[in-house]
UniProtKB/TrEMBL annotation:
Region annotation (Disordered) ranges: 1-24
Quaternary structure, from the entry: Monomer.
Lineage: Bacteria, Pseudomonadati, Gemmatimonadota, Gemmatimonadia, Gemmatimonadales
Boundaries of every tRNA synthetases class I (E and Q) anti-codon binding domain copy: 474-550
Stated name of the protein: Glutamine--tRNA ligase
InterPro entries: Gln-tRNA-synth (IPR004514), Gln/Glu-tRNA_Ligase (IPR050132), Gln_tRNA_ligase_bac (IPR022861), Glu/Gln-tRNA-synth (IPR000924), Glu/Gln-tRNA-synth_Ib_cat-dom (IPR020058), Glu/Gln-tRNA-synth_Ib_codon-bd (IPR020059), Rbsml_bL25/Gln-tRNA_synth_N (IPR020056), Ribosomal_bL25/Gln-tRNA_synth (IPR011035)
Residues bound to L-glutamine: D84, Y228
Gene name as annotated: glnS
Keywords from the UniProt entry: Aminoacyl-tRNA synthetase, ATP-binding, Cytoplasm, Ligase, Nucleotide-binding, Protein biosynthesis
Localisation: Cytoplasm
Molecular functions (GO terms): ATP binding; glutamine-tRNA ligase activity
Length: 578
């Protein structure tokens, strides 16, 4: 299934038409509303966002965050941030810090901040209680034997030789596992359920395994670690969560979730609801794969502006409002669906359109000399910073003089019929200013155009000709002497195909990387009005796209801009052109 958002278009929306809509009622919100109305859990709605601190948060996590925190907010409940940190091998405090920063940046504040690793004692006590009830046993088979004993989807499993150990024997072994007497992999604790269960997960799932490893928070306190299914539902129950929202791939885990919270004796335990994970075209949403991009140097780090991480999007210039609006738009469904990247870009443009001032920046400068403009003269043209349909005010003045820069793309020596920009003998309007006519094309020895000699019409300061003659095209420009040189980093999609995993046999998503995802323009020319704006200011460069000065590398002496998003979906057009 492919989801496209009907509203995807490049035209500016009506002022204020977006973001005032009430939150949608999806199937999860219906359920929570019912919980509240009928007092199902005997407590208010309680959700949690449970990342594993083994990487930075990405757009997929944003969907989960907006859902969990959104529900808490809408229904007057609570939402915890819980680190699901039960795997000592991959977790790090650096990720814990990044995740907290990103959740807050996205606009949410947690009620409780918890760590699954703080529950190790409680989980261990539950493990002992299961053993005492005869509901768990220590298995001493190796991984291979355990897998074989599980059977297959079509055949039942077979009990291993340790399945009927006595309670005393199991308790003794479990305590010694905890005390560190055994090597990794020699024993595991398993739930004693049913080796012929139709749900493979219920065939005596592993609960605890031995890992003599350093944990970033618990140090060397523990040498047994809970498996995901064991830790997850019980952590929810310990925190008093009501609805545990997770993605569809955990559907089969719901039975063990219910079994564990019940066997552990929780009253009114939480229940799990699954929803579709976000898959976005031209994007990878998997921490494991994103980590590879970082480690192999395909990007500059987790916050590379091309990364679909919240840190990357923030650095690029996307506002949290746009991400929240996007999550709202795509909604929550029970079936997996890929979302067109155009839908996200649309949300980004829509948000910035209403917020950021317009400026003129020439990415690919070509000198224009106005031969009839007095040398040494500079006049100031008044330039409003917002178009009529944006309810903001403000303006700046644009210096205008004899020497200007225009964009090379706005000139053609031998133009096709409908080219309404500069060409020999053609007249064009300068944004906020005069009409000019191109009279002469200056070339270097190699035959490249290096300068245009034009005349301006002094009677057209308003942009209109008093004699009523029609001029179709309007182009952007800057005054050469006053313009600031800047670096512009034009970011594009990180992958060159919608599904980066759909690659030929023997290759992986790395081969789908877009080699042109970053084009650096070292010497663009921007109007001087931006000179004293704080680093991190966002703009629309008229006709070009939305940009933000880069918080890491931009300085007052040398401005550096990241392209957040282009003006329209040029990619789709290029693909069509082939
Ligand atoms: P990844 O595969 O990127 O590591 P994950 O699911 O393993 O993702 P977690 O840190 O375990 O990452 O996820 C925290 C929460 O975010 C979980 O509840 C998970 O379901 C949710 N989540 C992760 N990826 C997505 C996604 N693409 N769409 C929606 N929710 C997601
Ligand atoms: Mg995970």
């Amino acid at each position: 299934m492919h989801l496209s958002v009907s509203a995807v278009s490049d035209s500016a929306p009506e002022a204020g038409s977006e973001s005032t809509s009430a939150p949608r009622r999806d199937f999860i919100r219906e359920m929570v509303a019912d919980d509240v109305a009928n007092g199902h859990f005997g407590r208010g709605p309680a959700t949690r966002f449970p990342p594993e601190p083994n990487g930075f948060l990405h757009m997929g996590h944003a969907k989960s965050i907006c859902l969990n925190f959104g529900i808490a907010k809408e229904f007057g409940g609570t939402c915890n941030l819980r680190f699901d940190d039960t795997n000592p091998a991959t977790e790090d405090v650096r990720y814990v810090e990044a995740i907290q920063r990103d959740v807050q940046w996205l606009g949410f504040e947690w009620d409780g901040l918890y760590y699954a690793s703080d529950y190790f004692e409680q989980l261990y006590d539950i493990a002992e209680s299961l053993v005492l009830k005869g509901k768990a046993y220590v298995d001493s088979q190796n991984e291979e034997e355990i897998r074989a004993g599980r059977g297959t989807v079509t055949t039942a499993g077979t009990p291993g030789p340790y399945r009927d150990r006595t309670v005393q024997e199991n308790l003794d072994l479990l305590r010694r596992m905890r005390a560190g007497e055994f090597a990794d992999g020699t024993h595991v604790l398993r739930a004693k359920i049913d080796l012929a269960h139709v749900n493979m997960i219920m065939r005596d799932p592993l609960l605890l395994r031995i890992r003599h490893a350093h944990h970033y928070r618990r140090g060397n306190d523990w040498c047994i670690y809970p498996l995901y299914d064991f830790a997850h539902g019980l952590s929810d129950a310990i925190e008093g969560i009501t609805r545990s929202l997770c993605t569809l791939e955990f559907k089969d885990s719901r039975e063990i979730y219910d079994w564990l919270v019940k066997e552990a004796g929780f009253e009114n335990p939480p229940t799990q609801i699954e929803f579709a994970r976000l898959e976005l075209d031209y994007t990878i949403l998997s921490k494991r794969k994103l980590l590879r991009l970082v480690n192999e140097g395909h990007v500059t780090g987790w916050d590379d502006p091309r990364m679909p991480t919240l840190a990357g999007l923030r650095r690029r210039g996307v506002r949290p409002e746009a991400i929240r609006e996007f999550c709202e738009t795509i909604g929550v469904a029970r079936k997996d669906a890929r979302v067109e990247i155009a839908a996200f870009e649309h949300a980004v443009r829509n948000d910035l359109n209403m917020e950021v001032p317009r400026v003129l920046c020439v990415l690919n400068p070509l000198k224009v000399v106005l031969t009839n403009y007095p040398e040494g003269q500079v006049e100031d043209l008044d330039a409003p910073s917002f178009p009529h349909d944006v309810p903001k005010t403000g303006s700046r003045s644009m210096p205008f003089s004899r020497e200007l820069y225009v964009d090379r793309d706005d000139f053609m020596e031998d133009p096709p019929k409908k080219f309404y920009r500069l060409a020999p003998g053609k007249e064009v309007r300068l944004r906020f200013g005069y009409l000019i006519t191109c009279n002469e094309v200056v070339k270097n020895d190699a035959g490249d155009v290096i300068e245009l000699r034009c005349t301006y019409d002094p009677a057209t300061r308003s942009g209109q000709a008093p004699d009523g003659r029609k001029v179709q095209g309007t182009i952007h420009w800057v005054s050469a002497a006053q313009a600031l040189s800047c670096e512009v980093r034009v970011y594009d999609r990180l992958f060159s195909q919608p599904d980066p995993d759909a690659v030929p046999e023997g290759q992986d998503f790395i081969s789908a990387l877009n080699p042109h995802s970053l084009v650096v323009i070292p010497d663009a020319k921007i109007e001087p009005s931006v000179a004293n704006d704080p680093i991190g200011s966002r703009y629309q460069f008229e006709r070009t796209g939305y940009f933000m000065s880069d918080v890491e590398s931009s300085t007052p002496e040398k401005l550096v801009f990241n392209r957040i998003v282009g003006m329209r979906d040029s990619w789709a057009k290029e693909v069509k052109k082939g």
